[in-house]
């Protein structure tokens, strides 16, 4: 009965990891709608102005028929251009709707399953693992490998490849000291970044200003300061004042390193990390790979206080639950770095053994378990090993306890 209880799928809890699967295309839909709305507003305003000027000039007799025809041709050209842009937005919206539909169907398949023993659950879990693996590879820049996996498993509509590819291009450009792509991305998402109160654009403009100062291009630096940095004075007054101070403290002088160490040091890694954080926040993407989150949950369920015990002679982390002779998943070389930071498993039910004793370390352990472990590691009958730290303890120091 207990096993059946634990095999039942709790759908709401099961899908906590899959929130970004639906949230991301919704955010992309919002962005696409805002872009289409901006295009309509911009082109409509320009057309109204052009039409009003043409009509006024024609009525007042200030323009020739040829001028009126030229103005009409210009308006038609603008309208065709707007139509092409809106068609592109419509195609993108159609693709996003298909993607959302495929993702909803994928999640609905889980609701048709009731227990993890169902044979279909294994197929669904494998598909989810493919999604997590492709998400991890895209974040790490293994685009071709990720695309191959996505094609082979047929999960094109469940993974946002283009979004991560552009994120990777912008981040790599920043690491190489290039800001063109990053500034273009900031321009595309200007309103959203303003709502997030993001410092990304300011930091990029500040870096351009610092590069001009380093290149002894003082006049260009002053123009850049007035045009791009001074508008941020109300938000970042301290940083703007420091930027102004750079004009008086040239790089290479003895005051530069002491007065402005944070501005004159290499800032490209910081800018790349800031862009990644801003990008993921804007599109509701977890900063940590979903694969790491899933692994952390599983590792936490397996982790015990006996894990990550370092053998005093070898310094190798081993699992004391197996007498120090085996390596558990938590202590394995592949997973121990990730597992060391996760919490221990939270158990809602306690299973107390009837022969508990207290060790000098204060830990309560089954006396039979200690004796079995002592036999495995070859200790004398009068000694046992503390599982928490591997200390050898005389049985005389053990104290019997009773649960009341």
From TrEMBL:
GO cellular component: cytoplasm; GID complex; nucleus
GO biological process: proteasome-mediated ubiquitin-dependent protein catabolic process
Keywords, comma-separated and alphabetical: Cytoplasm, Metal-binding, Zinc, Zinc-finger
Protein location: Cytoplasm
Organism superkingdom: Eukaryota
Domain CTLH: 169-220
First and last residues of each zinc finger (RING-Gid-type): 328-389
Residue ranges constituting the RING-Gid-type domain according to the UniProt record: 328-389
InterPro entries membership: CRA_dom, CTLH/CRA, CTLH_C, Fyv10_fam, LisH, ZF_RING_GID
GO molecular-function terms, A-Z: ubiquitin protein ligase activity; zinc ion binding
Chief site of localization: cytoplasm
Function summary: Involved in the proteasome-dependent degradation of fructose-1,6-bisphosphatase.
Family, per entry: Belongs to the FYV10 family.
Protein name: Protein fyv10
């Amino acid at each position: 009965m207990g096993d059946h209880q634990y095999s039942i799928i709790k759908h709401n809890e099961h899908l906590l990891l899959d929130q970004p699967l639906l949230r991301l295309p919704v955010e992309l839909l919002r962005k696409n709608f805002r872009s289409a709305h901006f295009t309509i507003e911009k082109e409509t305003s320009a057309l109204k102005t052009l039409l009003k000027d043409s009509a006024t000039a024609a009525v007042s007799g200030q323009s020739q028929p040829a001028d009126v025809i030229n103005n009409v041709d210009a308006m038609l050209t603008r309208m065709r251009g707007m139509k092409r842009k809106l068609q592109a937005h419509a195609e993108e919206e159609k693709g996003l709707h298909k993607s959302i539909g495929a993702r909803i169907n994928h999640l609905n398949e889980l609701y048709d399953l009731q227990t993890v023993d169902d044979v279909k659950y294994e197929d669904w879990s494998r598909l989810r693992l493919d999604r997590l693996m492709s998400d991890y590879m895209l974040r790490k820049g293994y685009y071709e490998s990720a695309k191959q996996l996505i094609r082979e498993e047929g999960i094109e509509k469940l993974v946002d490849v283009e979004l991560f590819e552009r994120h990777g291009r912008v981040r790599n450009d920043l690491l190489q000291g290039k800001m063109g792509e990053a500034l273009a991305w900031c321009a595309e998402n200007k309103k959203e970044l303003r709502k997030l109160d993001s410092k990304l654009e300011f930091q990029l403009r500040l870096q351009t200003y610092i590069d001009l100062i380093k290149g002894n291009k003082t006049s260009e630096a002053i123009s850049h300061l007035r045009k791009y940095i001074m508008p941020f004075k109300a938000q970042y007054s301290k940083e703007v004042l420091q930027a102004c101070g750079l004009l008086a403290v040239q790089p290479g002088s003895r005051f530069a390193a002491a007065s402005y160490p944070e501005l004159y040091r290499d800032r490209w890694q910081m800018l790349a990390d800031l862009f990644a954080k801003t990008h993921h926040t804007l599109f509701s993407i977890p900063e940590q790979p979903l694969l790491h989150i899933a692994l952390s949950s599983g590792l936490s369920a397996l982790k015990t206080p006996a894990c990550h015990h370092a053998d005093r002679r070898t310094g190798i982390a081993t699992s004391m639950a197996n007498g120090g002779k085996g390596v558990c998943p938590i202590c394995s070389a592949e997973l121990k770095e990730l597992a060391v930071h996760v919490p221990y498993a939270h158990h809602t039910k306690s299973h107390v053994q009837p022969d508990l004793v207290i060790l000098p370390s204060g830990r309560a352990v089954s006396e039979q378990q200690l004796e079995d472990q002592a036999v495995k590691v070859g200790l004398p009958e009068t000694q046992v090993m503390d599982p928490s730290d591997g200390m050898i303890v005389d049985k005389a120091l053990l104290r019997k306890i009773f649960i009341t």
